[in-house]
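Run DUF7691 domain-containing protein through structure prediction, thanks.
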Amino acid sequence: MSSGLSVYLLDPARTRALVGSRDEQLLEVIRGNFAEDLARADDWFSHAIEDGAPTAYEALEAVVNGGPFSEDGEHAFQYGYAYKRLCDLTGSFLDNSSFCPFRGSWLSVVDEGLRALGITAVSVEEFSYSDFPDPLPRPYEAPGCGEWSPEQCAKALEQFEETKRKGHAPPLEPEVVEAVMDVIGWLGHAAARPGFGIIGFRS
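Sure, done. The structure for DUF7691 domain-containing protein is below.
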């Protein structure tokens, strides 16, 4: 089974603050901009909804209002996808061509490539974690979520530049080099926007 990353450039603090904001205007915008996407999601997860999972929009309402959330942990995935939709609405989608789709331990392989280049401040494997803002329930599986702060992004770029100055880049497989350069591109976008970082989702 293959997976994919969705990676967004945004202000992580402001994005997390949307959770529990009770912003009715935001919900109206979502209803207007995501109507077809919400309908497709409800169709895809129709069996889970029949079993008691919230609809895509109900999950969005709960996330923006800070609850209430389903007590069934199996339904936590809907709140994870709702948070992803908030990032899709408020952030800029970044090129994910090296990460969609992928199989197996690809994220770990790319992290090894980053470390070989001296880049330890960020990790693409972190996008598989459950780093969702409180009080969102943590999904058992997909989607995963991870966040790189502006400071982490800046540090990672510094580490990359230091490796370039030393001129001792190790040989890497071409596909790993391509993926690493995608990551460097994300970091460059973050560096160009003070206060901006990266939030990524694995699904």
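The chain has one domain: 5-202.
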